[in-house]
Design a protein that fits this description.
Layout lengths: L1 H10 L1 H5 L17 H34 L4 H19 L14 H13 L6 H19 L11 E2 L3 E2 L1 H9 L11 H5 L5 E3 L9 E4 L11 E7 L2 E4 L8 E4 L3 H6 E6 L8
Antiparallel strand pairs: 1-2, 3-8, 4-5, 4-8, 5-6, 6-7
Amino acid sequence: MSANSDLFNKANPKLKSAVVKPRKAVATKTPSADTAPTAGKTTAAKTHAAGQRAKTKSVTSDKTAAVKVGKSPITSSRRQRDNTRLAHNQAAGKGLKEAYGRHRGGAQARTTAMAADAQPLRMSESHKVRYQHAKLTAMAKLMSQVGKPYRWGGKSPTTGFDCSGLIYYAYKDLIRVPLPRTANEMYHLRDAAPVKKSELESGDLVFFRIRNRNRGTADHVGVYLGNGRFIQSPRTGRDIRISYLSEDYWQDHYVGARRVMTPTTIR
C-alpha cells in the first residue's frame, strides 16, 4: 500500500499539495456573568437618552408653534397679570394710578389714561375761584420780592432768596405737593407735569441749564408771568428781576417747563 502511494504521488505531484487539511474547531465565547449586566446597562442608557431627546424636541416644537401664532407663554402670562392688577385697583377705587409709567398697566390702561387726559377737567365754580385766588396769591408774593438781593441758600424775605428758594417761598403754602429745595429736584418732580414752551401759562416753572453740562438736568429756575416774561433770582451780586425768554441767553440755556399749581394740587 505504501509503495503504491509513493508511486502515485510521484506521478501526480500537484494532487499532493491539493489535499485540504481539516480545520480546527473554534470555541464560541458565551457572555460571562460579569459581561451580561454591562450590556443591559448600555442598552438602558441608550433608551433613556433617546427618550430625553424626543421630550426636548417635543417641548421645543411646542414653544416654536406658540411663537409662530403669537401666543408666547411669557407674554401671555405678563398680559394676564397686568390686566388682573388693573381690575383690582379699579375695584379698590384707585382709578388709573397704577398705570403710571410706560410699562405698567398694559396697553388698555395707557389708552384709558390718554383718553382721560384729553377730556377737559370739570370744576365747580367755588373750585375755580379757589384756583384763581391761589395763582394770584403766588404771583403777588413773587412780585413783592422784585429788587431784593440774591442770597445763596435763602428762602425767606428776611434772608433773601436763591432761585429755587424764591419758588419754594411762593408755592409752599398754596399747593399740597411737597416742593423740593433745589432747581434740579423741582425739574424732576413727579407731581409736576411737563409743559410745552408754546403752552406756558402764568405760574409755570421754567428751567435752565447754565453751569451743569449733564443732559437731563437743570440748575436754574424761574416762574413764568405771561407774555414771554419770567421772574427769577439770578446769582450773587444781582437782584430779583423780570427777564424775557426771547433773549438769546435764556433761549440757549432753556431746558423745559413744569406746572406745579393745578386745580388738583392746590390746598
